[in-house]
Every structure is written in structure tokens, then in C-alpha cells.
Protein 1
Amino acid sequence: MSRPFPADEPFLNGNYAPWPMEGEIRDLVVEGEIPREIEGSYYRNGPNPQYPPRGRYHWFDGDGMIHAFRIRDGRASYRNRWVRTARFQLERAAGEALFGGLADFGNSDPRVGANMTSPNAANTNIVWHAGRLLALWEAGPTHALDPRTLETVGPYDFGGKLAGPMTAHPKLDPESGEMLCFGYSPLPPFLRYHVVSKDGRLVRTEEIEVPVPTMMHDFIVTRDHVIFMVCPAVFRLENLEKGLPVINWEPELGTRIGVMPRAGGSRDVVWFEADPCYVFHPMNAWSEAGRVVADVCRYPRVPLMGDSAEQGMQDLSARLTRWTLDLASGTLKEEALDDASSEFPRLDERHAGLAYRHGYAAGALPRDQERAGFDSILHYDLEKGTRRAHRVGPQDAVGEPIFVPRTPDAAEGDGFLLALVYRGAEQRSELLILDAQHVEGAPLARVCLPHRIPFGFHGNWAQGV
Ligand SMILES: [Fe+2]
């Protein structure tokens, strides 16, 4: 008989607890009406451990599970499947967890089996590019999936061309159709930049020199520049022997922001100094008249890692912040755009890397009682400087909002927001469909599941798929 999941791990309980089933629902109950313009698939990835952990559990460790909603003619179907990684298959054959995770780096207990090469969990993001659906995890190659059945085709490294790991946050260039990526590593080379052509070929790799290896979760690409955020969450492999966290917060190093011309290489990077901070996710950035403007969700220190790991969700409070990087003077201006806590920032992706007006995020607005998770879907009008919110109930929580344009050539921000919401009282989840221009209004549609989808990370829309 298999062991139960531990009751004392915060990221294995409540709506963080894994959902143990794979299945399919052909015609979901819809309250309201799904706009007929919406035709395609929404895919969402997140950690969903198959077996109870051997040691401690970190939210970033769980096996990736994909939840997919296919929408057409005002109707929606659902399917979920784990990504069949090597780890998933080895553990399924064994009937138990075999590997330690992030929380056990440096743990010498052989029963935990901790090692520096924790196998690919494929649990962080999922993107559709050049006819391929790729599940992503930032410390390894991608996994290709069948877009209809979600069956795992297998690990995918661009025909052997991907050197090192690949970020879970590639950027799709709306003008060129390219997919821009990077990979970071605790071992040299610490940072690489990659370009994948519109037709899916990895055509360029540049090694980028950085002073120390850091955990670099995301980056930004504009029409003219690539921006690397070297926040002081530093890999210290020597900490392994001392039983200390491998990712060490070193604020004295400050944050360094590297701006590289798209056509350039490591020697062309212009570095800017900023106060120590951590950024998991940028909203967007653009280049104009000798400067780069970048909007990011900024933490004063790295959450969830190292000394911050024990604080869990309580520590997850980033603020939307604008950096203006002046390339001529080498100076950086930093200003908070909002005082509310926000994460999972997104935009109308047709403006990725370009000047833009509308941004979206999951947010936590001040509320009387303490609660975990995000209670609002936020819409920022960055031109007007306003923020609107779609707030859910006190026991509910929302995930990352995804923008779907009404039509391919609709104006920026004219479209829909898709977001998962967990209804705590009923312990089930829904796909909310909001009018992106009136997020505070009643949802256009609530696509209802009879079960819950655990809190996860990122998703994307695949038009017409
Ligand atoms: Fe992320």
C-alpha cells in the first residue's frame, strides 16, 4: 500500500495538494456564454507530485501535470495528463519517489537520494511554437507533447542543438515569429542565449559572461535588446558540504541588469547597477530613443529559496516596478507602479517587446483576514496609470491571467482574459473568461470543472489548436 502525502507540508495541502487522476471531460458545464471568437486551447502546467516525497518537498519539485481546455463554438472540453519524464516513468515503475528535490540539496541522508542532478520535472510552463507543444523546466531540456492527447512525445532539445538547460520563460517575438531563450547553470558557462527561428530551428547560441552564477528565472526581449536580470540569488555549490542552501541571498552584490543588442554578443552587454532585489517575472519591456523601459514584478529579496524557503506563500509579495535604463548615461531609474502585491504578469502578447498600454497580473489586494494565494485578476492601464480588479471570494484564489485577442487584428487589449480560479468552499476549479476591457464586471463565462486544479505556474494560449 502506498504512503499518504504528509499533512505538514504547506505545498502538499489545501489546493497545493496534487490531483491524482488523469482524465477527459468532453463537454464542460458553462455558466454564461463563451464568446464565439475564442477558438483554440489553453494549456497550463504545474507541479503535481506522483508520489509522496522521500524528504522535504519544495513547490518547484513536483512532476509536471498539464491541464488543457479546448474551446470551440462556445463549448469547452478538458483533459489533464502528467508529462512522462524519465523521473515520472522510473518512479511509476518503482511505485514510489526515488529522487530528492530542491529542499534536499546537500542532505547526505542516502534514503533521500539527494543529488545535484534532480531529474527534469517539466513542471513550469508550456508553450506552443512552430507547431510544437513544449513543456518547460528551467534546469533541463524541453518535453514535446501531443497538442490534442497531451501524450508525451519525449524530451526535445532541438535536434541535439540545445546546449545546457533552457529557461521555462522563452519569449515569442510577435514580429519575427522567433522564440528567444536562455539557459542558466551553476556550472560554467553560467549563461547562454539562444535563438529559435520561426520554423523551430535553433539557429544561434551565445555564451554570456556573468560574474557569478545566479538563479535567473526569466528574462526580457524587446525589438532591439535582450535583458538579463542578474539578481543576487547566487549558486554557492561549496554550501553543499556545509549543509547550507545552495542558492544564497547576497544583497551586498546588488542586482545587475545586462542589456544586449539583439544582434550582439556577450561583449556588447551594457550593465546597470540596481538595488538588490529579485524578479521572477517581467511584464514587458520596450526600447526607444536610447533607452529601455522594463516593467517587472519586483521582490525586495528572493522568496521561496534559501533562508526564505520556510516562509512559503507569506513571502510572495512583489510590486509592479518600472525600470528605465538609459543606455547613453548608464543610469537606471526605478519607480513602483503600484503598491498592491502582484505576480504572474502578462500582456497582450502581440505587443511583447514593444511599447504597450495594457498589462495583467494575479494580485493580492489588502483584506481583513489572512489568506493564502491571489484573490484578484488585475488589469493595469499603464497609459492612464489605473488598476482595475476582478476580485474573487474570500475562500477563492486565482492564477495567472492569459490574454486572448478578440480577433487577430483587434486593438491592443480588445479581447478576453482566461484564468483559473479555485473555489475554496466547493474545492473545485473553473476557467474564468473575462472581458479584458471590463475585468471588474461579471465573467462572460465560467467553465466549470467538477474537481480542482492544484495551484500551478504558467500557461499559454494556442490559437486554433
Ligand atoms: Fe515563472
Note: Residues 171 and 180 are 5 Å apart (CA to CA).
Protein 2
Amino acid sequence: METHAKVVIIGGGVVGCSILFHLAKFGWKDVILLERSELTSGSSWHAAGMIHTISSDPNISRLQAYTINLYKELEGLSGQSVGLHSCGGIYLASTPERLDFLKKERSKARYMGLEQEFISLKEVVELNPLIDPSQYLGALYDPLDGYVDPSGVTYAYAKSAQHYGAKWYRNSPVVETRQRPDGTWDVVTPKGTVNAEMIVNAGGLWAREVGRLAGIDLPVQPMEHHYLITEEIPEIASMGKETPAGVDYEANIYYRQEHKGLLLGTYEAVATPWMVDGTPLNFGHELLPDDLDRVSDRLALAFQRMPALARAGIKSVVNGPFTFGPDGNPMIGPVPGMKNYWVAVGIMAGFCQAGGVGRSMAEWMIEGEPSIDVWSMDIARFGEFATREYGTKKSAENYERRFLLTYPNEELPAMRRQKTTSIYDRLMHRGAVMGVSFGLENALWFADSPENAHEEPTFRRSNAFDYVGEEVRAVREQVGALEIANFGKHKVSGPGAVAYLDRLLANTLPEVGRLKLSPMLTPKGKLYGDLTVARLDRDTFYIFGSGAAQEMHRRWFEKHLPDSGVSYENYSDAFHGMAIAGPNSRELLSRITRDDVSAEKLHFCDFRKTTVAGVPALLVRISFSGELGYEIYCAPQYHLKLFEKIEEAGSDLGLKLYGARALMSLRLEKSWGVWTLEYRPEFTADESGLDAFVAMGKATDFIGKDAIHRARDEGVSKKLVTMVMDAGDVDCVQDEAVFHNGECVGYVTSGGYAHYCQKSVAMAYLPIALAESDEQFQIEILGELRSARLQAEPLHDPSGSRMRG
Ligand SMILES: Cc1cc2nc3c(=O)[nH]c(=O)nc-3n(C[C@H](O)[C@H](O)[C@H](O)COP(=O)(O)OP(=O)(O)OC[C@H]3O[C@@H](n4cnc5c(N)ncnc54)[C@H](O)[C@@H]3O)c2cc1C
């Protein structure tokens, strides 16, 4: 075995082998994979092998389509059959809500260029004669679905990697991973030690154990999972062709043809986490004892839906463990806070996802960034709040909900109150309905009493609608207060801070006592941050950004730190705080601080360290509502006091608490995008409109500058727009297809109701020729095409005079 490699991948399941293949294919030959036993010794060998593109996240769907389309290439390169059956798949709906869900999925598929289509129930029966059509309301057909042979796929990746010059070693368990002072890793096996520039934990069922070798706890959890295989079913045997795979959400079953019978699996109503304290190191090519009692209710439903099944004998039952993460999506990428340590873990649909995961990991390692925005798979979407217990409970929740509907306005119950602020109880007493962001509870909206603080999950407008409207009107007409503990905060200081930030940020740095908005770009010119940069003194900066992306930003800040002269800290938990906004906010602020906060003394975009509500605070004159407003940050121990003083001082000024929903409505009226929706590494500054905050003229070669030049030479092809639509009683949320003259030309990044302007609004990226036109558009919401037109100026206060006043 080599003593040195550029990359060592730990784990020879489908995921590790795909990463090995992609690294080698993209040009890194000095990469090796170490496998404890034989390849496919974890969950990969006993998978049902079903493949599909449907996912909650469009980019994951795209990568799943990539994975499926890769199989032919792998067979060609390796000479190894992957057992590909391209039989198509049918998604069945038996409730109106599920039909809405399928319509949303098809809308998403349209702009991704995938060919999902609704088929009639008559066609369903023609494709699968076992199905009783009277049980259903509709069916969506996806021609890309099918199934593969799991071992064949894993070996096809490994052999194709070998074709490109990579190596793998069997019977080479990694027993230690030790980091050297130079940041490289010694990967120790009984056969010898390999020094690697980077390592990848692709340990699958043992991801937790491999993580612990490097001192990290990963929030993943193997879960037991059953499927069974029937004896021959005459109706299947007599068909001249293979029946499509199927998912029946309400019965909670999936199935596909296996020889002349069916393979049928289910996600049990009560999940069974497997080996909560750790996967035994000697667990081999083994299955778990089956327990059909756990799935009998689902089998009864399956017999109703496909009566012929009840007459079929069961040939075999599989109960095998596979690993889930807290939200069901993979966790990939470099681990924040560590050097040269990468993970690709928690991948619960390896045969749909491993190709996309492998490609994204390889691009990220080789080129510094993946070609597709992988935020929904990024390990950085979790932080220290995602403990082992969190991983177990959330993974179990995810397993149980795999085929259940989760509505866009729904907040899931497991592991709530993992992180709270000191005003949590106060907010609950004021009728707060809470959501979670990066583990922290934050108010979404306020009902008129705690008793009414519930929201019905729905694709349509919910009972929150009128309450949110009142909050918006309070901010526009009087004053509102919003807890902003969940914003991301970073501190950069030291004699090298100016040079460091000047290179990292696309805008010039603010003067002392001022703040500026600045995008942070990748070398390819993609957005990596949309930040508010505040300067305390010559060498000290506070940077405010997305709370959800705080660890992603931390990773970027740390990656670019020089050896000395700059110190960086993620300050998100060190500062909580409140925002106040609205025409009466200045008066409110003046009542709780001794500072002169008049328009002449505290200008728009001023920033200072001072005392507010009698507690030490950072005071920022800015507001994401588009009104006159202030953000007041303080240490968590002062947060309650600050809140109490704001409530007290605002009582005769019309003060109303508002939540994240009202904030989203307020910003839509201003045509401002938000991080993870409009602003993310899928788009550039020019496309997003953030070019207004890019200082191309500054002397420093900031990261991404060259890419902007190149893109401008080629011509910017799309642009973020705001659209106003005839929505009826349902607004856009995200990912709805936009049509022009019957052709899908883009998709909605976010939408909602602009309560003050009383319009339904959507933001979308459109081809440049259309983005600046006065054409008519249509947006597909829950299967209906609604007319929409461009809104060139912000709906509210286009000149910005209210926030600057
Ligand atoms: C019953 C069942 C049905 C499924 N059905 C489907 C399906 O229909 N479609 C689908 O896409 N997915 C399905 N899956 C999930 C799929 O099997 C997994 O997503 C996939 O196997 C994950 O692959 P992996 O490489 O991450 O992990 P694993 O397959 O667990 O591989 C990890 C590898 O790492 C090795 N390893 C661990 N520790 C070390 C160490 N210290 N040193 C060296 N090597 C080490 C292990 O030996 C193992 O070979 C199913 C799973 C089960 C159990």
C-alpha cells in the first residue's frame, strides 16, 4: 500500500466508490480508497436498488438525474453490469393534498427539463394490472425511474475508478486518523499508514465511528428498514413487459418488479433506530431479524391497493440498516472547523444520489467549489446543536415521515427547543408560533393569544395570513419589534483584517462607524455570502449574514485566514438582539438610549458600540423591512432586559411584535432577495442584482473579480426579477415554473403575499431578454397557470426615502 496519497477515502460502499471514480475521472490519480472488508460491506449490498429523481430539493433532483444517467457510462467503462431496469415509476395520490404535492413536483420537474407527466388511472392499470384504480385520485409518471443491482453499481464505480488510475484496498480497516501539524492526515490501518492531504469519511453505517477517530460526532443514525419479495404473481408473470416501479404515499409503500413477483418496502410508522450507541465494528454482510408485525398495518393497506398481492406468497424478507441524517438529505463537504477533513455521510438513497454526491465532492475538492449549489447537502447546515441525540431523534422523525406530506409552512416537532433565547417564554406568552433556524427557536408570527397559536399545515394561505398582515401594517405605519438572535454574526479583527476582508469581500470596506452591504463571491463568481459589514474601529469588523449559513460562512472565513494578523470568530451565539422598525422606531429608540439618535446624529448605515436599554449593545441603523429601523445586538445575558425595555417604551407608540413571516412579506415589497433562496452559489452578483454592491473599481483583486470580467465579456444570461401575479387564494412558495408563450423559462426562488401592497409576489430568475421586457408570463401554482407580470420597481417606497429618512 502507498505511504502517501492526495486523498484517502474511508469506506467502500456505493458512496466512497463514486467519490473515488469522480476524483480519478476529473484528473486526480493519486487517490485511494480503504475498505475495512470487501466492497459493499455496509448497507450497499442489501438495498432495494430503486432509483428516482423526486426529492424535496431541485438541485438534489438534478444530481439524482445525473446519477441515473451515469449508469450506462459506468457499465461501458468497467465492463460490470449495473443491472439497470429503466421501467419508469408511478407516483400515486389518494388525497387532494397529495395530488397538489404531485402537481408541485411536476412544476419543479418542468424547469429542470425532467419529463414527469400525469397519466390517467386507466393508463396506470395498463402499466400495472395489480392496482385498484378506485383507491386513487391521480398518478404522476416518471420515465427515469427504475432499479439497479446494488453490488453491481458499487463495483462498476470502483472498476471505473481503476480505469482512470485510482486504487482501492480491501481488508484495510482504518483504525486511526491523526492530523499532523501541517494539516495532512495519517490514516492508520493494520497494513500500514498512508499520509493524505485530505481524507473523506464515507463510512456509511460506520460514519459515526470513523468520525470519532477524528474527534467529531456526526448527527447520523442507522435505521432498520424492511422490504419483502413475493413469490410469482400471475398478473405480473403474464405481462409482456416489466411493470413500472411505484410509490403509494398514503399507504406508505414502494414497490418494483422482482423477477415475476414484486419487491415491496415501507417506512414503518414508528422508526427503529439501530445501534444508537455505535455500529459494532464486526458487523459484516449481515441482515437483521425481521419483524413483520412492525409492517403488518402497511401490508394490509398494500393488499387493499393491489388485491392480487394478498394471494401472493412471501418468498423472502429483508430487514437491513441504513443511515439517515436529521433532514433526510446527505451531509457532504469539508467539515467546518477542521482542516482537510471531508464527509459524505447520511446518504439514505445511495443508488439515486451517490453519482451526484461523488461528482459534487470531486469538483469541490479539485476546483474549490461544486458546479451545482449543494447547500441542501452541505454538512455546514448543521452546527454543534446537532448532537448525537439530535441526530438519532431527527433521523427517526425523518424516516417516519419519508412518505408523509410536509407542507411549506410546517415545522416538524422532533428535538424542538434545542436552542432558545432568554425571551422564549415571553414570546410564547405573546402568542408566538415558533419555527427553527439552525437549531434556534424563532418566532414566525404571533396569534392574538397563546391558545390560538397554531398553524394549519397547508399549501395554501393558512390561518396565519391575517395575523401576519397586521404585523406588516404595524411595521409600515407604527413600529414593530423582531427578535434577531437567529441572524448570523461574525467578528474579524487584527492588523491584517483590512487586507483580508478587502480580498474576501466584493465591496469596499466601510469607514469606521459605518456599515456597507457586500457580496462575498467564489473564484467562479458565484454568490457565497450576502453580508452586512460594520466597522467598529480601524481593525475590528462585525459582519452580519444568514443565520442558517453561519457555519458555511465560518468555513469560508477560516479557509482564507492568513497565518497571522487576523482573528476570526463565529459570534452568532455571542450576540442576541432585537430589531425595531417603522416610523415610530426612532422615537422608541430615543426613549431607551441616552445617545442622540436624531436623523442628524445617527444616519442610515451608521454603526456604533453603545448602551441601549441600559445594557451594552451594538447599534446598527438598518432594517430589512425597508422602513426606518435599527438592529440592536447584545450579549445573551442582556437580551431579556433589552426586550422588556423595548416593550415598555413602545407601548404607547403602537408597538407590535412581528416574526419571520412578516419580515419575508416586508422584504418582498422591497424586491430584496434572501440568502438560500435568491442569493446562493447558483447565481452571480450580476444575475442577482447584488452587482450594485460590487466595487469593480477597487484596487484589490477580490475573490471572484476575474470571473465577473469573464462573465461580462460573455454576456449575463439571466436576471432576478420580481413579479406580481393573479394568485387567487394561493401564493407562490418556491420552485414554481414560470412560463412565457407556453414555454418554461424559469422558476420561482421565493414568493408570498405582500400584505401592505396587497399583492401576490414572486421572485424568479428569467432569461435576460425577458427580464427586461413588458411581456406577460404565467406561473404554475398547484397545477394552475396564473398570469404574472414583471414589477420593475419595488412595490413599496421605491426611492428608499422611508428607510433613509
Ligand atoms: C433495506 C434497504 C433498502 C434500501 N433501498 C434503497 C433503494 O431502493 N434505493 C437507494 O438509493 N438506496 C436504498 N438503500 C440505501 C442504500 O443502501 C444506502 O444509501 C447506501 O448503501 C449508502 O452507501 P454508503 O457508501 O454511504 O454506506 P455503506 O454501504 O454502509 O458503506 C460504508 C463502507 O465503509 C466501510 N467502512 C466503515 N468503516 C470503515 C473503516 N474504519 N475503514 C475502512 N472502511 C470502513 C464499510 O465496510 C462499508 O463497506 C436501502 C438500504 C437498505 C438497508
Note: The mean pLDDT is 97.
Protein 3
Amino acid sequence: MPFPLSPFPSVCAVPELTFLGTGTSNGVPMIGCPCEVCHSADPRDRRSRTSAVVRDGGRMILIDTATELRLQAIAAGLDRVDAVLMTHAHADHTGGFDDLRRFNELANAHLPVYANAVTAESLRERFAYAFVDQFPFYGGKPDLTLHVVDGPFALFGREVVPVPVLHGRLVVTGYRFGDLAYVTDAKAIPPASLDLLRNLDILVLNALRERPHPTHLSLDEAVAIVQELRPRAAYLVHLSHELSHAVAQALLPPGIHIAYDGLTVRTLMG
Ligand SMILES: [Zn+2]
Ligand SMILES: [Zn+2]
Ligand SMILES: [Zn+2]
């Protein structure tokens, strides 16, 4: 069930995250799939492509521009975005990129976008029109300033720590905001990055299905990482249609939750 964001910017500095989408690259239901999960009556089994928004001190920080960005923003009541953090440039995480232009129009300003060097290069290539100023007004196209991140950076008065993880051979960027961290599309987390994810209140991590996959964590692999890092709570995203919400949740130990589209979580400490 969606938890709509308040229309009023929060003045509280405690990071709060809303899952805009929690599904794998095909989305759930998948086109033309007769399976039970794709035809489930449980609204938590309708997973749009994985993306989230962090609310921090009244600022809205979007993580990825998933294929359904427009519909996700409408469902969550998201009417402003102050910055965009990209994890990587795969199509399911960038398919809604053009919809950023509406947030330019609402704010009447350029939007800063943060990405690692490889992701930034892919974005410039695929969305070249978004990085040149050719419209005299906001809203005709995305108007963006691209910032390449290769270490911790300041964003609206808070330190954001990029956390490199491996998605097969591709380096994907996770992000840590104080006691909350968001990691998607990982298959492996190098030791130095594991160290960046210790002492968390909330960890968001990907888990595709029960069977192993070459570029995504399985449910068991994700649970093993969570049990090593010991956050207070963990939320799993990027699930395929092979697991319903109810079945996946029943396989998990206490403190590890399957996220669903529209769920909002808050850290205890900030
Ligand atoms: Zn993905
Ligand atoms: Zn299916
Ligand atoms: Zn990916």
C-alpha cells in the first residue's frame, strides 16, 4: 500500500527513504507471464523498476530514474527533487531519465546529478540532449549538471558516502547517508565497501530470487551479507517474479524485510 509523502517538506534531519520501485529489470508483473506472482492479488507483488527517494532535512534526493519514474512520483506524491544520485546506467535504472525535466520545471532550476565516471559517461552518451542548454525555459528537456563522484561528497550539509559494489564486472555505486545506506544491483561487495556499510541503522540491499544469478545477489547471499553487517533493519529490493512478497518474507530471519513499492522507512538516530 503506498504511503504518500507529506506535501510539506520535513524539517526533521532524520533520513527517511521511500521505495518508489522494488522490482527487477522486467518489472512484476512481467509482460505476458502466466505465473501466480504476476497474477497475484497482493499489491506488494506489483513491483515497478527499482528506485527510491531519500528525504533529508526537507531536501528530496532521488536515487535512479527508473522506467516508471513518472508513475512512481505521482503515486508517492513526489513534487520536488533537489538532486539525483545514479547507481549505474542500466536501462531499468535510467528509463525515466527524461521525466527529470518536470522537476526542472517545478523548481525552475537545473538539477544536479551525481554518478561514478563510467555511469556519467554512459548518461552523457545516451542522453546527450540533457546536458546541453538549448531550451530557453525549463521543462522542455532535462537540464542537468553532472557531477562525477569518486569519494565522499557534501550534499545539502550532509556527507554522502559512495559505496562501490560489483554487478558482475560493472561497478555500481551504492550510497550511504548517515545511518542509512542504499545498495542495489550488487552481486559482490568488496571488503573495503563492506567496511563502509558497518554500524548502520537501515541497509537497503538487492536480492533477485532464491536461485543464484551471475550479476545479482540471491536471497541467501543477501541474507549472509546482512548478517555480517548487522544493521538494525534491512530491506531487500530488485526482486523478480519468482518470489511473491509473502513467500519471500517467510524465508527471512527477523529484522530483514522485503520492501515494496510505496513503503517509507525511517532511521532511529538520524
Ligand atoms: Zn537493475
Ligand atoms: Zn511471472
Ligand atoms: Zn543493473
Note: The first helix runs from residue 69 to 76.
